[in-house]
Amino acid sequence: MHHKPKHSTHHSPADSTDAHAKSHRWLLPVLLVAQLMVILDITAVNIALPHIAADLQLGGSTISWAITSYSLIFGSLLLFGGRAADLLGRRRMFVTGLGVFTASSFASAMAGSAAMLFASRAGQGLGAAILSPAALSIITSAYQGSRRAKALSAWGAVGGAGAAVGVLVGGVLTQFTDWRTIFYVNLPVAAVLLFASLKVVPADTQKPRWRGLDLAGAALATTSLAAIVYGITQAHSAGWTSIQTHVCGIGGLAGLAAFAIYELHIDKPLLRVERIADRAVGGGLVLMLAVAGTIFGLFLLCSLYLQNVLGWGPLTTGLAFVPLALSAGIGSHAAGHVISKHGVRGPLAGSFAVAAVGMFLLSRVGAHGSYLTDVLPGMLVAGVALGVATVSVSMAIVTGTRQEENGMISGLNSTGHEIGGTLGIAIFSTIAAGSGAILGPQAASGIGDAFLVAALVASLASVMALALLPRAQHFLAKLALNPQAMPVH
Question: What is the DSSP letter of 288?
Fold first, then answer.
């Protein structure tokens, strides 16, 4: 006689489905918090630079390396980080990048000299270059169709609003504690992220494929991009017409050309250069340079005006950026719905046009202006528009990518963002300093000129979006492909 056991040792299919759905619900928040941590550490340090300089006795030209050492490594290694996610495993690289970033954050907090701080910041850049494209690759592989648009909207909201939130966080921590807290706060956050990622990020099903990693191509691309980033970031002090700037710029571009030729002639390239011929990918990459440069320029110029012209402190300046964060978040959220119906060409062209209006409003800042009348209106208009633009351009680049190249295209997307942002900071800071004054009411003239140039850049990008990107019907056909779509919420 057989008896039915009281308790089964097997889980029902319904139980497995519930557990799977629960882990999926937490996947996007984990990835977004990791990306937010990376972004916050960029702009939070910006607001703390005067305190870092005083504590470590850094000169005016030396202190910029607290930013440059991060952006130099981050921007030049993103392509390699994206391809490594494809070949070595997305979760493996996400966890590795998180570990490197966390260890380097601790080293930055403990830095007792300029050399240690700059080396630790470079380590953070390395961790971020591994973590960020891996996280975006996980999103693009886990979400499809319209749900991918919503997930990328959230990713865009972090990118658009994170810089502004970073100013607030940096202002609060610097005002009430110490600049080192900006790095210490990463430790508990990273510990939670590490635990959560092992639970909710899909495990890598394949073994690491080291043979296809294309180290020669990675070295060539990294060196070329590093030369360009170095030349751009040092152009303000060395001079845009200096031999150093020309050698770095021309040498870097020549290196990228050699990289493209090399990649076309190997079996397993770091970047499939022919993918750039796709109008959505190639056009999106060009426009990513414009949108990132404009966003970084908006942040930089508003910060310069509030602190250098109006004389605001770090905490007050940080609070002034809260409306920008909210408006960018609203634009990013709305972008997913608009793209699902109208593609990317129209929304991107329209958002750049509106951003140009916001920048034009900001170009009227005066020596004795006010935040409410001279800054806030333009900040809100530009913030909403650039929130839409950030999501639209990312969608253009990553939609339609094949499963095995998600990391590659995600790395390309992130590279465009970082290089574009670096270009924006270098160009707009040079224009803002063109009047010869960077402090006091007289600095308003140069800042206004830089805002006007930003308006012209946004206007040109609006026209380029119409010329470069595919029509809605072609783009939506790619977006409609929705195999095994996973709910976002």
Answer: H
